[in-house]
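Notes from the pairing session

We agreed to fold both candidates in a single pass and log them together. This is the raw record for the first candidate, unedited. Please don't reformat it; downstream parsing expects exactly this layout.

Candidate A
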Amino acid sequence: MRIVYFCRTESSGVDKKIASQIVNLKQMGVQVSIVNITQDEHVQAEDRDIRYITLPGFSKSRFRLIAILTREYFINRSLWHVTGELDSDDILYVRFEYPFFSLLYYLRKKRKCKIVFEHESLEPQEKLINGNYLFPVFDFIFGGSIRWHCDGIVGVTDEITTYEVKRSGDSKKPHLTLGNGISVESVPIKTSFSFIDSELHLLCVANVMKWHGLDRLIQGMIEYKGTTKINLHIVGGGSEIPAIQQMVKKLSATNQVFFYGPLYGKDLDEMFNRCDIAVGSLGIHRIGLHEATTLKAREYCSRGIPFIYGIPDMDFPSDFPYVLQIPADESSIDMANVIRYAKTVYADLNFSMKMREYAKQSLDWSVKMVKFKHFLESLVYTIQVKDL
């Protein structure tokens, strides 16, 4: 079996998740490569297993609809050319593309390889939240048929997988729910445990969007009347940063909320050691989800820093002692509860090692890729048997 990942990025960089998956699949003896659609005109492949296809300049057209249609036709035609290079025991693995009619046209054509779509969200709802109104329209028209003609579906939560299989119109569509993972050894473990009652340091590392729900956290900080001084450290950029900065200024919280922009390497490691509790996504419900498996939660666990979170995660049991689940609504965060949680966790100074060990056993890509490999192998074998 050979697997080709078909993905698109804004630059030449390959998604860290895909890179980690590929490393682990190769270690299991699977032949795997990447086809990356990129806007970087000067990118050159340094890895023989990565092929770059550059989007032509029409993607910068002034006429947005024409630009989208032309871009998607080019991408889908490239996808089809890749399928022509693959055989009956090969998999083209695609992070769900734009539900454009040319994708449906190519999926309906005869091909040897299997095409599997990965879904990381309920796409129409997420696009609407982001102000993309064309995607839901195209998905309404073509999305069901596109899902029908693919050979398998992978969702990162049961909620997403169930939705996508239902959209396909085929209840027997081969599918797998596989939560996100992490290469645990790629991040260092937290080594400082200096939490004291008089001061609590919260850390959010994210490309901040509305669904991170930091407004709920900041409102809770303002409403808190206890004696512990609460500080929030925000590391990263994101479209929601200006709104959060404006909120902080309006609420006169500039002495409690600090913005650092992106940090890397030792600077980021020092920030994790400096802080007591990490902040996961507190507003996932805003994009219509009731479950999530965010990459950042896996990093927090691997680093050994307890964190707060907005909705259930399939990889963390409800009684997992190092995650505090916050109500999935628009209420402000109860900071007194967060402080009590911090005191409970820090009563055991071995918590960081215990979180790290859990991450190795349950969250590492080396564990998750075994299940993934078995699913794709069974998909290839099952379809070949049906064709006999």
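Candidate B (folded immediately after A)
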Amino acid sequence: MSPLGWGRKEESQSPEIPGIEPRNSEGVMKTLKTMAMLVIGFAAAAGLPAKAQLVVGQCLGTSPYNSIQSAVNAASSGSTIKVCPGGYPEQVLIQKPLTLTGIIALGDEGALLLPPIGGFVATDSTLTEQAAQIAVVNTTGVTISNLILDAANNTSNCNGPYLVGILFHNASGTAQKNAIRNQVAGASSGSLCEAEGVYAQNDLAQQPNTVTVQNNDFRNQSEVGIYAQGSGLTMNSLNNFIAGPDNWPQDGYGILYFSGPSGTIQGNTVVNEVNTNLTSVTNPTDVGIGIVMACGTASVTGNMISNTQEGLYIGCPAHSGIATNATVSQNKIFETKLGYGMYVNGTGNSITNNMVIGSSSSGILLDSKNGANGNTVSGNTITEACIGIDTTGAMGTNKLSTNTFNSVYVPTQKNAPACGPIF
């Protein structure tokens, strides 16, 4: 079994067929052969290609494929590629529907993608600023699961391209049950630059795509764990664990939705997003933040955020004219040690039934001077904060009701002076 409990259960070799009661082995064999011939005949009549299963490595017997890319190149659409345990120092480009999955074999597990010998390069010819360990480009129906993507000891630098674990560019698919770690570019040169665990970008709003990122383990990405960008992109980030980088001297985000995406951010745990260069908040986006919903529309529910410099950023600058209309509910935010539990500068958001505990500054800041209007803030519980709910100007059309404050110096205040830290 995988150490993360993600072992795969093989399908039974003797399926029960509803409506057929076996009487003896000969009768069963005749029935199964008849059904098999019918299936083959229907497939041939319809012109449907058989969906192949390819194996990378020799764990299930002799295979012609010792690299993942060679199997991807040979696979037909809809194929499943099983990757044997072992290390694969390569980058993979996928441009057709398929399933790519690591397997357990011979008591071993752990199919690892490692930095290629010659260093990372851009594999997507139309997005040359990104160098992905796996790039999914201009296709749909791709599933990537049970792999370990480890970019430790890479030689990338800050001159680009930016390092990404899994890239979805104008593509739809699912990344699930993967371990994605050490996407840290520039470490070998003594500096750190942008890198992401999973990055999805949609260039054309009229060509919508949906990407689901679920049940993955992210560790030590030097800027963003999960990053979604572009109109027409629906990004569902579900039940992931994201641990921030070690000693990252710039802003870092666990989950970032920027410039147009929609979808759901639910059930994730984000910890340790900290900008080590900062001792105070001068710009609410220059700090380490758990979840950022900037100029997009999504449901942000049931997440846990701990030990960050800011918990949630929700909104879009007033000059953008974009209403976020996000639903922010039942999130738990613990120990924002520099800034706000939630920073809001958007419009039309419903912020209800959240829990904020241990906020160095305001539990919730409504930046009404920069566009926070028309928001509903109710049923939230704020415990131990310098200010419970603060606004930067007039309350405007924001509506506050039935919020609960415990061990808070000032429950609500307009234009409060700087306060904290309380830690």
